[in-house]
Fold this sequence. Notes:
Layout: H1 7-11, H2 15-21, H3 23-36, H4 49-55, H5 58-64, E1 66-69, H6 78-83, E2 87-90, H7 104-118, E3 128-131, H8 149-155, H9 158-173, E4 179-180, H10 204-219, E5 231-235, E6 256-257, H11 261-268, H12 270-277, E7 282-285, E8 289-290, E9 293-294, H13 299-309, E10 315-317, H14 331-341, E11 346-347, H15 352-364, H16 370-386, H17 406-419, E12 421-425, E13 439-443, H18 450-454, H19 474-482, E14 488-493, E15 502-510, H20 528-539, E16 541-549, H21 557-562, E17 565-568, H22 577-583
Parallel strand pairs: 1-2, 1-11, 2-3, 3-4, 5-7, 6-8, 7-10, 13-14, 13-15, 15-16, 16-17
Antiparallel strand pairs: 8-9, 12-17
Amino acid sequence: MAGPRAATARSGRSPWFAAACSATVGALLLPLLAAAAPTAAAAPRCDSTEDCLAQMTLEEKAGQMTQVNHPNVMDNKEALAEYGIGSLLSGGGAGPGGEAGGTASEWADMYDEYQRAAMKSRLGIPLIYGVDAVHGHSNVEGATIFPHNIGLGATRNPWLVRKAQNITRKEVLGTGIDWNFAPAVSVPRDDRWGRTYEGFGEVPWLASSMGRASVRGFQGYRLDSESVAATAKHYVADGGTTWGTGEGDYQIDQGNAQMSERELRRIHLPPYRAAIRADVASVMISFSSWNGLKMHQHEYLVNDVLKGELDYDGVVISDWAGVRQVEGDSYAEKLRKSINAGLDMIMVPNDYKQNIDAIVSEVRAGRISEKRINDAVRRILDLKFDMELFEEPFTDRRYTDDVGSAKHRRVAREAVAQSQVLLKNDGNVLPLSRKSGKDIVVGGKTADNLGYQMGGWSITWQGSGGDTTEGTTFWEAIQAETEGTRTDVEFVGTETGGDYSGDIGIWVGGETPYAEGFGDDGDLQLSEADTRQLNDICSKTDVCIAMLVSGRPMIINEELKTADAFVASWLPGTEGAGMTDVVFGHERFRGRLPVTWPSSVDQQPINLGDHRKDPLFRYGYGLRR
Ligand code: GLC
């Protein structure tokens, strides 16, 4: 099964090669060119993977396999050339200056500055720079932020997902970044997992179809300078871990997937087959274990299955300091196990010297073969040549101004609308009429909170409440929707006991932002305040609608009885008008549950096919209206 390699990349000649060939002209011309072009860097001094490999020292190869979180070299950019660092990343929230946020042009300036510094190395090999644009380029202020994957899974619309990811591709390119640690093709089986919302749903075919669409959206049909390299993650069975086996303080995240190989191959492996068929450029290894052995040292599943049986020839990257969780008495021993298991790029992401020194010493001691190192570096260089980074190492500023454009936001709004799942609609309360002249009361902690509406991985790693970027809250959207009509809307916030009444009440609440293991939750209950607010609104209006903004199913048995209509909104992102589009009938409700909705948390894990359990709503449920 071929990997993402465009055959020409390995043997392709870069324009720099032509220039270097005309030595006489070059000697006269290049210095003039360099002075004239402010963004020009020292030209690469190797022009194909094999040419670079033939010239590289062991230390330079080790540097090429090293990925560093950018704040670690922010004040020492010379280290990039000195150590021949192959890759940088911005971990969640690591924007320009190491701070969260930053505009697209600030990100692009940061990227170009690092790239210029890196290309001053002896061979001038360009960096590849990674980021988690997991629901749009969500680290960047003003970027278009889409529904998280669980909402995209509810759309059952891979074409829309591809369109959305293509927009994310453009917005990522607008900041210079060339590598996206997305899509997560996790198959979350226990919704108590804090990363449930990063998956498209609980069945492999949903993760496969949406994962494939995402890879195509990010990369196009072949890798080139218009691509952003995609990453299928986290290999493998990250969503199949057992409650109570989580790493450190986590209850389930990074835990142990205790299952037969048959179940692992049936449930968790298919999305990787699909992503590889779509030529995914990289695969990220999971923190989790399979039957007690960490994936970061799993020779069988990485070398034999991923690289052997699935014939994967892209880049296999570790997760954040994932090597440090491998059994071993020293970093060098842990690292050796990971690299020998098949990992190519190491997301250190801090102590890059230790990483480089460890690789060199392990090779010199004969515990890692030169052959293995050359294979890893070949994969990395092939990716860089395929993406034409040697020819076009700097930001293409044509994309920068379009970050967060109205055109992009319209697609996100469409995705929000299609992701909404109507769980209850007694008396056909929905859709409302904007011209009904009715009095509408809106409340709940999420009704006017953009940060809650976006969830985790938004501007910061964990996300936060408030107006952390540009977007439209549900409350702002409903005001716009009813502007100029006889329909009055009143905002009651989170107060209860207030003296108000109305024809229609709309409560918007649910989860506050979280990411990864910080979101592991053993009860999935709404907060008492949420329930109180919902009851208050419903007691003071003739009919009431509940809109649950959450990264997963929650236990809503009582609240479902209280409200006349109930909508699962997931984590919609910046375009709250997608929610009002279905509430007011501009778009039909068409979303379908990507996960089984439990009637009790004790039912977890509960998934399609668990016939012995009686869920509140089955996988695929969703009313039409
Ligand atoms: C995190 C996540 C992974 C992410 C990486 C870089 O710990 O597990 O999904 O891509 O680190 O931010």
